[in-house]
Design a protein that fits this description.
Number of domains: 1
CATH superfamily: Collagenase (Catalytic Domain)
Radius of gyration: 18 Å
Strand content: 15-25%
Structural class: alpha/beta
Number of helices: 5
């Protein structure tokens, strides 16, 4: 029994250490942004550590902040916890539902799950990320990121969260088509998408879900 307890304690300490490093790395909203939304990050931690490095998580948030500057929106850490190792591979619709259903009951925060693998449900292989709506209803939704995701994947999925579909604009990070120009570092939201994001932002702020940390309080 003492061996089991020691293993459990070691696992808890490893998770705490991994989460502390992530929390320290994630950037805050720019003070100049008119709108700021908290991200509830749920990161798989197993015997090898967190599913991704603190630098990778920080880069995802930093890229989201860069692209959403066009609508004066920023993102920062709102909550952080560890997911057990058995949730590291998300391969079915049922698993996608279960992942968020137990942890994203409220729409007041944008929930982001970082896993090791995210299967493509419409084909073979894996995908980098998804904006997922709970098939059980209640308007619950969340974002799932694979540990293999590009730096702009969180920004892409947040685009969906705020109302954008996939795009055919060459400049757009919502465009999934392979292309040489413009280079990835020059891609962002197209002007038409910025206008649509502004409308989506207004709808979400009116509903109070997610909560805008810069909104005036009574």
């Amino acid at each position: 029994m003492s061996v089991i307890l020691a293993a459990l304690a070691a696992g808890a300490a490893r998770a705490d250490e991994a989460l502390e490093a992530v929390a320290a790395a994630v950037p805050a909203c720019d003070a100049a942004r008119a709108h700021c939304f908290g991200l509830a990050l749920h990161v798989v931690v197993d015997r090898d550590g967190a599913a991704q490095t603190p630098a990778w998580v920080a880069a995802q948030v930093a890229q989201a902040n860069r692209h959403f500057a066009a609508v004066d929106v920023g993102f920062e850490l709102g909550a952080l916890d560890a997911l057990p190792a058995e949730l590291g591979a998300v391969e079915t619709r049922t698993q996608r539902d279960a992942l968020g259903r137990a942890r994203a009951a409220s729409g007041r925060t944008i929930h982001v799950f970082v896993v090791r693998r995210l299967a493509d449900l419409d084909g073979s292989g894996d995908i980098y990320g998804v904006h997922w709506r709970d098939r059980g209803g209640a308007k619950r939704r969340w974002i799932i990121l694979s540990a293999e995701a590009w730096e702009r994947t969180l920004a892409h999925e947040l685009g969906h969260f705020f109302g954008l579909p996939h795009s055919s604009h060459p400049v757009s990070i919502m465009n999934k088509a392979p292309r040489a120009t413009p280079p990835p570092e020059e891609r962002t939201f197209a002007p038409e998408e910025v206008a649509r994001l502004e409308k989506g932002l207004a709808r979400l702020r009116a509903a109070g879900q997610p909560v805008d940390r810069r909104a005036p309080t009574d």
